[in-house]
Structures are given as structure tokens and as C-alpha cells.
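Quiz preparation item.
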């Protein structure tokens, strides 16, 4: 096996190690996952228990701000708290648009969940397309470490591995859309009680959030422990 490029850390000499490191960095570890999930949990719990939309939104933002201040005091990365605040802000924007269009409180609550459905749909489409055209997104994680963003594509073994991992990343997003979108549209059209639709979407957003993501990551971890693909090697394979 040839030596990995000079700019790759000595301890990271396989594709599997690179992907594990990049995914861990992208998720922010346990703390990053908690920071991303807690504001949404606060919103959902308060909405289900009080039916006060503004209170639920304001409380979720307040919790995110507290988490942000803690990060600033500790001088650690604020990326994951800002991601949560951004998500809440987009939700609030959709709620505001619904309110200005004369939507009821239930319509506004449904609007809060719409950005998540759009995001998961878009993510599913993008990830699937990268696999179908033979340039799986995870491959670019490898490229970001090796210093050459496209060299990995010359190695069929790496392409196969990254394709499998990219499909595994897409599955949670696809499942969320398949399960949650019919409920959202049914609530919006009145086919089911909007209040029940909001409650179901809130519960599903939590239950199909990190638990589903962690299941996909566990599957990825299993794939990553099976082989050891060199970061650099014979690209003619």
C-alpha cells in the first residue's frame, strides 16, 4: 500500500477512518447532537401541552440562546447552536408568513414543520442524485482530507464504499418524508383534524430525528468496520 499524502494526518490512512472523523466533526459529537435536538423538543412539548404557539417558539429560542452563551463562555464552537437557531428562525418565518396570509393557529403550527419536510426532501434528492450519477457526496468528505477533491473517484473501491455510505445518509431523510408528508398534507387539507396532525408531526419530529439518524450512523459504522480502504493506492482497481 502506498503512503497517504503528506497533508493527511498519520493516524488517518484509510477511507473508513477519514469518513468516521468527518462525520463526527459534522455532527459535533454528543453535545452537538443535543444542542440541535433540545430546542425542537422544547417547542414540541410546549405546543402539545399549552397550544401556545408563540410561547413554544420563544421558549425554544431562549433555550438555544442559553446554549449559545454557554458555548461562548467556554470558548468552544458555536456552529451547532447556530444551526439550531437558524432552523427555529426558518420555522418562525414560515409561521409568520402563514399568519399574514390569515392562517389559523393550527395552520401556523403546521407551517412550522414545513421547512423540515422541504429540507429532508431536498437532501434526499441531492444525496440520491450524487449516487445515481456516480459521484456520491461522502466521497467529497474523503477529498476534503486528502487535498484533492476528486482523486478518490478514480478508485472504484472507494466509489463503491462512498456510494453505500451516501445511500445510508439518505435513508433517514427519505423515511421522514414518506411518513410525515402525508400527515402534513392531510392536516392542511382538513382530511384529519389539524390539531391531531400537529401533535403527530411533533412526536414524529422527535422520534424520527436523532433516533433515526443514529440508526443510520450505526449502519454506517458497521460498514466502516468491515474493510480498510487505503486513502491513496492503485487507482486502476
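Solution:
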Amino acid at each position: 500500500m502506498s503512503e497517504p499524502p503528506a497533508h493527511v494526518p498519520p493516524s488517518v490512512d484509510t477511507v473508513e477512518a477519514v469518513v468516521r472523523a468527518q462525520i463526527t466533526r459534522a455532527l459535533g459529537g454528543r453535545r452537538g447532537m443535543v444542542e440541535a435536538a433540545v430546542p425542537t423538543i422544547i417547542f414540541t412539548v410546549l405546543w402539545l401541552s399549552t397550544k401556545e404557539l408563540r410561547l413554544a417558539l420563544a421558549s425554544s429560542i431562549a433555550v438555544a440562546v442559553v446554549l449559545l452563551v454557554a458555548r461562548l463562555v467556554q470558548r468552544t464552537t458555536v456552529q451547532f447552536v447556530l444551526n439550531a437557531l437558524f432552523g427555529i428562525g426558518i420555522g418562525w418565518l414560515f409561521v409568520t408568513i402563514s399568519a399574514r396570509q390569515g392562517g389559523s393557529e393550527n395552520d401556523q403550527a403546521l407551517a412550522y414543520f414545513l421547512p423540515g419536510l422541504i429540507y429532508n426532501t431536498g437532501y434526499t434528492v441531492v444525496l440520491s442524485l450524487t449516487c445515481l450519477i456516480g459521484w456520491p457526496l461522502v466521497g467529497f468528505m474523503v477529498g476534503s482530507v486528502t487535498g484533492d477533491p476528486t482523486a478518490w473517484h478514480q478508485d472504484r473501491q472507494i466509489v463503491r464504499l462512498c456510494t453505500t455510505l451516501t445511500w445510508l445518509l439518505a435513508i433517514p431523510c427519505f423515511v421522514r418524508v414518506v411518513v410525515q408528508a402525508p400527515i402534513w398534507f392531510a392536516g392542511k387539507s382538513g382530511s384529519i383534524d389539524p390539531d391531531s396532525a400537529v401533535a403527530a408531526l411533533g412526536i414524529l419530529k422527535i422520534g424520527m430525528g436523532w433516533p433515526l439518524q443514529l440508526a443510520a450512523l450505526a449502519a454506517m459504522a458497521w460498514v466502516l468496520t468491515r474493510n480498510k480502504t487505503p486513502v491513496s493506492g492503485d487507482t486502476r482497481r
